[in-house]
Write a structure and sequence with these properties.
This is HxlR family transcriptional regulator. The chain contains 6 helices and 3 strands, in the order ααβααββαα. By secondary structure, it is mostly helical. The radius of gyration is 18 Å and the shape is globular.
Length: about 120
């Protein structure tokens, strides 16, 4: 068994919690997943994630841009367009997002059974 030193242990601090809350929230995962596939304009993202409101999508994109995961690029076309792209930092999340989606798909039936048991006992 390999021993771990204190230096190897991750301490969850307030900045860690804040970042994870912002990256793993309801809409961020979906936006990041879509943008890892290809750059998109705002309305393309709205069509790909039809349940998100304009206000929520705007807030999500700004939060992801602030955290360095997404960049907003003005495209010199007529009319001028804005495109959202995943950054190299954001790309590092793709394997993690895929793993979370695989895990949730593989375990959804167990989670639903646990919820039903809990709700029946409550």
């Amino acid at each position: 068994m390999q021993e771990t030193s204190q230096a190897d242990q991750v301490v969850i601090t307030a900045p860690h919690r804040e970042l994870l809350d912002q990256v793993l929230d309801k809409w961020s995962l979906q936006v990041l997943d879509k943008l890892c596939g290809r750059p998109s304009r705002f309305n393309e993202l709205r069509r790909e994630i039809p349940v998100v409101t304009q206000k929520s999508l705007t807030a999500t994109l700004r939060r992801l841009e602030r955290n360095g995961m997404v960049e907003r690029v003005v495209v010199a076309t007529r009319p001028i367009a804005v495109e959202y792209r995943i950054t190299p930092l954001g790309t590092t999340l793709q394997d993690l997002i895929d793993a979370l989606l695989r895990w949730s798909t593989a375990n959804m039936a167990d989670v639903e059974r646990a919820r039903a048991r809990f709700d029946a006992e409550a």
